[in-house]
Amino acid sequence: MDTNTVTLTKQQLTYYHTFGFIVLKGILTPVEMNDINAEFAVGLETAHRYNPGVGWSRQFQWSNLGPGFPVIANLLEDSRICGLAEQLIGKDAIPTFSNGNRWVTDTGWHPDTPHTNLKGVKIACYLQPVDGENGALRFVPGSHQSLLNGDVASLLEEVEPSIREVPAHICESKPGDIIAFDNRLYHAAAGTSTDKRQLTMNFVESPKNIAAKKEFAEVGDILRNQYARLNVQHPFFASEWAANPHGNPRRQRMIDWLHSESLL
Q1: What are phi and psi of 95, to 5 degrees?
Q2: What is the CATH number of the domain that holds 168?
């Protein structure tokens, strides 16, 4: 799978660092998307069995890092995904998760992290076409930067606008497109169907200063709390995946971090 590299232009890098996101079209092939859909269906069925009392009316999430998800798991270290993260936040970017998500309701405005010093990037791929009417990601451009980030937080707390009342860029996408966005960027989704399917992969920088190192120490707890809240099945990361039989250095960066956080 690791056959292509996405090389961002100077203009694309400037766009990302200015606005906090970038959409890349047709990165994953139709053949890959067929395999991804099949693996996603297995993950969803397993997640449902692990939560038998909730029916199909709630969000499900699970880790894709195991032997049952060979195509999806490999994306985390693919040059088109991890290589993209390395261009955006540094060559030593650390993968932190690869999740399957089945959404059933809208998502209110939020950033993915409370951290303002530690750089992180989430890469998302939808398994169906999405637009502003059926749950596409929408962003407040530039809200990953500290001043606007604080202003948006204050607005949401004081005014409590609806999702659609906040001026935003709507990221329409089709299967095979990927969306990369800064973990600090405010985002939401409106018009979500009862079966919106999405992959998310996350990366954080290897911290370069004291403030970022302090925030980095909390990343493991955030992941633990997220999985506990959604009752994600154990183990989060399968032993076969963690054995890293091919010695992939990108995977090893994640494994070393997981061991340091007692997540493996």
Answers
A1: -65, 140
A2: 2.60.120.620
Q: Is residue 130 part of a domain?
A: yes
Beta-strand (E) ranges in 15-112?
A: 21-24, 60-63, 94-103, 107-110
Closest CA to 223 of 63, 24, 46: 63
CB 113 within 8 A of CB 207: no
Distance CA 116, CA 224 (A): 20
**Full pLDDT tens readout for the chain, 264 residues:** 445 788 999 999 999 999 999 999 999 999 999 999 999 999 999 888 887 777 677 788 999 998 899 999 999 999 999 999 999 999 999 999 999 999 999 999 999 998 889 999 999 999 999 999 999 999 999 999 999 999 999 999 999 999 999 999 999 999 999 999 999 999 999 999 889 999 999 999 998 899 999 999 999 998 888 888 877 878 888 899 999 999 999 999 999 999 999 898
Distances (CA, A) of 142 to 132, 173, 187, 233: 19, 20, 11, 35
Q: Is residue 1 in some structural domain?
A: no
Q: Which pair of structure tokens corresponds to residue 125?
A: 């791929």
- The pTM for the full model equals 0.93
